[in-house]
């Protein structure tokens, strides 16, 4: 059993064939239609498709004016692309510890992480659960800082009835096959800020502005476009998004009812006023349980599991460059070692979920020190 299987089929195949047969392959009408679909779904004012969430985060940071030497505050627990985007701009990621119940940035620690070099705050919606955006936006407003949401896993997630990715200054979704919808590779930046949207549009395509007959280059921009081949897949995926999100949420609640009774397992929470996408279904294991041994035992039972995500300060590049001690980020460190991702996707059957729960119970028994 795999961790995730994207929901794709004939509509996606037909959409790709149509683009290829049209002879117009890169960013064009399909990309515009895909952006419209995401804008309509999320109620964002602007949406710009990009080649990945990583390039989208980088592009958004540049457009927000983050410069070499600046600091960007991010949670310590995330896929390292979150920090890499900051580093690619020559800026320094400042890691803030998380709340172990939600795996999200602990807003009580945010204010102390802001310095006179901070240029942006970049919360992550861990596994599709929105971070505590009211508290984060309040700190950002006090320091007059923009908030860039890493909403890579959170398309379809909500907070106070509003969509993830529309809660700060700008947001970025990922369309990698492990995420909510897929374009194989791809991402999208959303914002309500007209000026920011204009900068993003120019920087996305070589810093060029179209003149009457040819382009004029007004910035040293990037090529972070999404092709129409990929956008066509995304457009087909958007017709399924309600089924995908509700299917993931239903599967998550059924899985929770099966694993919540297993000793030493903390199941995912959904704070009042939020809707989780369950891009990943992540449990936290007691310290007496050897998480890596659980992953190995689950593998022998033919069930793919993995760590939750990364304590970035524990990865070789970040360890060597920043040398952050484990005690500085205790909850991030613990989540890095004790969080476990279980398979979750709408196509899971009742039998699959029984098998996951049974295998987990046995694997934990075999991996616990008494
Ligand atoms: C997957 C992910 C990314 C990177 O997305 P890509 O589209 O693969 O570049 C960034 N941040 C988080 C939190 C992610 O989960």
UniProtKB/TrEMBL annotation:
Q: Does the keyword ATP-binding apply?
A: no
| Keywords of the record | Aminotransferase, Pyridoxal phosphate, Transferase
Q: Which GO terms describe its molecular function?
A: transaminase activity
Q: Which domain of life is it from?
A: Bacteria
Supply the Gene3D superfamilies for this chain: Aspartate Aminotransferase, domain 1, Type I PLP-dependent aspartate aminotransferase-like (Major domain)
UniProt cofactor(s): pyridoxal 5'-phosphate
Known PANTHER family for this protein?
DTDP-4-AMINO-4,6-DIDEOXYGALACTOSE TRANSAMINASE, TRANSAMINASE
Q: Which family does it belong to?
A: Belongs to the DegT/DnrJ/EryC1 family.
What this protein is called in its record is DegT/DnrJ/EryC1/StrS family aminotransferase
């Amino acid at each position: 059993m795999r961790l995730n299987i994207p929901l794709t089929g004939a509509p996606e195949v037909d959409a790709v064939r149509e683009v290829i047969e049209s002879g117009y392959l890169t960013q064009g009408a399909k990309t515009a239609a895909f952006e419209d679909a995401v804008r309509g779904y999320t109620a964002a004012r602007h949406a710009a498709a990009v080649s990945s969430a990583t390039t989208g985060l980088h592009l958004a940071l540049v457009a927000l004016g983050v410069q070499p030497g600046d600091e960007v505050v991010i949670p310590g627990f995330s896929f390292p692309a979150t920090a890499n985007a900051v580093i690619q701009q020559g800026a320094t990621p400042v890691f803030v510890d998380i709340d172990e119940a939600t795996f999200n940035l602990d807003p009580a620690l945010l204010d102390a992480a802001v310095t006179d070099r901070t240029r942006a705050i970049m919360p992550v919606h861990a596994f599709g659960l929105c971070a505590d955006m009211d508290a984060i936006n309040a700190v950002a407003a006090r320091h007059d800082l923009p908030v860039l949401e890493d909403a890579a896993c959170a398309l379809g997630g909500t907070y106070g009835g509003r969509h993830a990715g529309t809660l700060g200054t700008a947001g970025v979704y990922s369309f990698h096959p492990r995420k909510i919808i897929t374009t194989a590779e791809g991402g999208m930046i959303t914002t309500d800020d007209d000026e920011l949207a204009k900068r993003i549009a120019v920087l996305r395509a070589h810093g060029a502005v179209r003149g009457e007959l040819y382009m004029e280059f007004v910035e040293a921009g990037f090529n972070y476009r999404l092709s129409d081949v990929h956008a066509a897949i995304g457009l087909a995926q958007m017709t399924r998004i309600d089924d995908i999100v509700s299917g993931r949420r239903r599967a998550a609640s059924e899985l929770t009812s099966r694993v919540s009774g297993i000793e030493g397992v903390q199941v995912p929470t959904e704070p009042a006023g939020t809707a989780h996408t369950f891009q990943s279904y992540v449990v936290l294991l007691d310290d007496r349980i050897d998480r890596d041994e659980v992953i190995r035992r689950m593998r022998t039972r033919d069930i793919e599991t993995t760590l939750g995500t990364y304590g970035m300060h524990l990865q070789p590049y970040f360890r060597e460059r920043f040398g952050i001690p484990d005690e500085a980020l205790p909850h991030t460190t613990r989540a890095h070692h004790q969080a476990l991702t279980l398979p979750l996707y709408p196509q899971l059957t009742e039998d699959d979920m029984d098998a996951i729960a049974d295998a987990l119970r046995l694997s934990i028994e075999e991996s616990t020190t008494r």
